[in-house]
Design a protein that fits this description.
Shape: elongated
Strand content: under 5%
Radius of gyration: 26 Å
Number of strands: 2
Order of helices and strands: EEHHH
Length: 104
């Protein structure tokens, strides 16, 4: 497993923080690579064995979280956008001015 400090220098050249090598043709870096025909590509971020790491989640769990976040984002957008059209009806139903619900 690679440490974050491993990517700080490449062949004696100081790199800008956050700069990493994504291709290791000679396999000289002590990091995990992709498998198959893309074995020269360095995996960033490096995989862990932690079952709570999203890279290790099953496809079902990833899709569940995707749709959960999509639904929550949809509800947040709808609640903001549907407030305006209902405002007039609420002021009529509760016999208030447009200003009173804002300060309540």
């Amino acid at each position: 497993m690679a440490s974050p400090m491993q990517f700080d220098t490449v062949e004696g050249v100081e790199m800008v923080p956050g700069t990493i090598r994504i291709i290791d043709l000679l396999h000289t870096m002590n990091v995990q690579h992709m498998e198959g025909s893309n074995s020269d590509i360095v995996l960033v971020p490096q995989p862990t064995r932690d079952p709570n790491d999203p890279l290790n989640w099953s496809r079902l769990r990833k899709e569940y979280h995707y749709w959960l976040l999509w639904w929550l984002g949809f509800i947040a957008a709808v609640s903001v956008n549907w407030g305006g059209p209902v405002w007039t009806q609420l002021t009529i139903d509760y016999n208030t001015s447009y200003f009173q619900p804002n300060v309540a």
